[in-house]
Amino acid sequence: MEKLINLSNNPQGLEELKNKLVTSGGQSPDSGSLFMGLSMWGIFLGFIFSMVGLAFFRIGKKDRDMKYMVLGVILMVYPYFVTNTIYIILIGLFLSFIPLIFKRFF
């Protein structure tokens, strides 16, 4: 377990924390990072949302609807740029429910 950094009245602690975040890319070495800063859950959920994106893309291609095609591409690509698992879930769910929201309210 990592030692805790005391930040109260300790400017060296703040500097140490800043250096640690910069050198580790925001991920602690023992945070379970496997590939590109993603955990196993991040990789799995990125794959699931990419498959949803592929389905949206295929629906859009079949119906010639650019909204579905663009949304599908976004769903397939965004997991490569988001490394936090919670953000992958939130963004993926939001993007997946956009067609339902537009059909119902617009």
Derived from helix and strand composition plus strand pairing, the structural class reads mainly alpha
Distance between the termini: 51 Å
> Count of DSSP helices?
4
Show unreliable segments.
none
Q: Could you report the average pLDDT, rounded to the nearest whole number?
A: 82
For the CA atoms, what is the radius of gyration? 19 Å
Helicity range of the residues? 55-70%
Q: Based on Cα principal axes, name the global outline.
A: elongated
Order of helices and strands: HHHH
Kindly give the count of domains: 2
- Main sheet specs: none
Query: What is the tally of beta strands?
Result: 0
Strand content: under 5%
Jot down its keywords.
mainly alpha; 106 residues; 2 domains; 4 helices
Give a description of the structure.
With 106 residues, this protein is mainly α. The chain folds into two domains: 1-28, no CATH class; 32-105, no CATH class. Helix content is 67%, strand content 0%. It has four helices and no strands.
